[in-house]
Design goal:
The protein has 124 residues and is an all-alpha fold. The chain contains four helices and no strands.
Length: 124
Amino acid sequence: MKNRILFSLAIFSMLIAYFIGVSVGKQGISYALDVTQGELAFNHLKRYRVIKEDLESGCLEEALEKLSFYVDEQMMLLAEYVQHHKVEAINSYIAKRDDTLLGQLKSYEIDWKKEWVEKKCQEI
């Protein structure tokens, strides 16, 4: 009888420890996702503001060049996921929202060594 009680307490303790661990793990993942989303939103906002300023100053060429660079950068990032990581959830997400993009990404050239010098807008 005593062994059964000790065994039950041990199992109960392990279950409590497991559920506490799962809860703490979820909080850590949630925090990391929040930080990542916040950083992405901030960086995109910064880029959009620079392009908006260029357009408002009449610097169409500079704005288009920045947009081209940013699009290429995002294409390479997505192409890397499609070509190397092969995460089906990402492929499905892309295919559902843009029926031609997934095909483009499968053959997109990934070259992270590309250099680009950002041209500053010279107000007209």
